[in-house]
Amino acid sequence: MPTELDPVDVVTIGVGWTAGIIAAELTKAGYTVKGLERGQEKTLADYQHQKDELRYALRYEMMQDLSKETITFRNDDSMTALPMRRHGSFLLGTDLGGSGVHWNGQTYRFLPYDFEIYSQTVERYGEDKIPDYMTLQDWGISYEEMEPYFDQFEKTCGIAGEEDPMGGFRSDSYPLEPMVETKMIRMFKDASRELGYNPIQMPSANLTSAYENPDGQQMNECQYCAFCERFGCDYGAKADPIMTVIPTAKDTGNFEIRQHSNVTRIIEEDGEATGVIFVDTQTGEEFFQPASVVAVTSYVLNNVRLLLTSEIGTPYDPETGEGVIGKNYCYQVMGSATGFFEEEKFNTFMGAGALGAAFNDFNGDNFDHSELDFLHGGEIAITQTGRRPINNNPVPDGTPAWGQEFKEQSLRYFNRSLNLRLQGSSLPSQNNYLDLDPTYTDQYGDPLLRMTYNFTEQDRNMAEYCGAVLRDVLEEMGADQVEVDNEIGDYDIVPYQTTHNTGGVIMGDDPDTSAVNNYNQMWDYDNIFVTGASAFAHNSGFNPTGTVGALAYRCAEGIQQFLDNGSGQLVEAKKRTKA
């Protein structure tokens, strides 16, 4: 029998951005919160003097141990899913702060179109514009309702940026001025404007000056060292959970973090969660943590898997389209172009995770899709994240992959080439989903999560159309040779593409088609809240963390209302439910 612990008001499963925000807000209100973190507790001191590309960028020091827990993957139902045995397409973080510690810091707001994508698409183009296989739906909330939470997250992080004329309205400016405009960024902006587009400096959680956030947490100025993605920031200059919300929660005295604690089950009785079972990963001992509210705040894939193994909610059935847990798994569609310059040189070895510029004229519904064979679009951007020497060898097509010529071309073009990207949306398909694998299990004997996913005709058409813009911009920038990669085949679990997995526990205003309401409260279990990118009904052409943070603040508000008022569905969410 598991050892039963003293009850708390809220237990969080994982302690990253979402759990940190929930803990900070609820502990400030006087509630007790316990965070169960299966990794180790880390602080800023753990990341100092560790700019080791081999250890962190290539050997994945900060990532999940795939020998103990992984997923299985297939493109469609006719295939047998096999375990992912090495990190590739996306990187699953571990330890305190999770993926929020090793992120780049690019912090966008989703567009107004994203939150009401079905309604706005039908209103402008008609229902026939949506393919039969596409399970497109609104989120049950509007951008106008989300805006205050975006603002709150940006002020917690000290986001540096400038207003985007192609984005939603802002009630306030960014807390900090944009990052520096380097030579390559200035060239990109000039070329984009010449072509009629609206470039902006990328919104950044790499701070441009020392900053104290509204909770009193102090952060430092970015040094442009180029060690952001896959690394913790040893300067304390990248907003992450261990620099912001986690210290705020701990300062109240109402937050306890229990490390090395892997949650294996949510326990429910009569339609209500009573707590969670977790395993101490060092001793193997099981514990039961009672709680008034269970907040499922792990990474997307782990949120879905835990609900399925706990038999919480109805699993999604791709044959009938019924069920909600595992539904609308989405990823992101990428395109790129490389421009090679014979005379121009750039300091590509310098940079920061969110140093860059972008335009969103081809994102969302910012352009007319009437005659196009796809919906949505993506962000066109240049980033100067810093080319580290081991993993960057840009050479023109036709160059041998090894030998003297490869070495010469690598050295020549290391600082004479620039890369532009398309970061495209991912719209849901009835055939892309998450469920439990019938064959493979983890170290505890529980089924692995199975991912069934492939790019769709929509994805390929969008990537080809929007990705063609990359060539125009690079040529306008003066590149002597441009190579474009905007044709996509079948999705593969390698190589790395983006860690922007979304969906599986999606939000909406109808319990038949969504798992959680607009407070991320489960329709079927009033005291279970599931937040994070798993709540996204589709994926936009932006990095997701800004929207994840905003949803977490709204979720925290909902949990507090629930605890203050007793039980039941939250009033505002209930009003939005279809009759």
Automatic annotation (TrEMBL):
Residues 428-552 form the Glucose-methanol-choline oxidoreductase C-terminal domain. Keywords: FAD, Flavoprotein, Oxidoreductase. The keyword Transcription does not apply. InterPro entries: FAD/NAD-bd_sf, GMC_OxRdtase_N, GMC_OxRtase_C. Residues 141-330 form the Glucose-methanol-choline oxidoreductase N-terminal domain. Coiled coil: none annotated. It comes from the Bacteria. Belongs to the GMC oxidoreductase family. This is GMC family oxidoreductase.
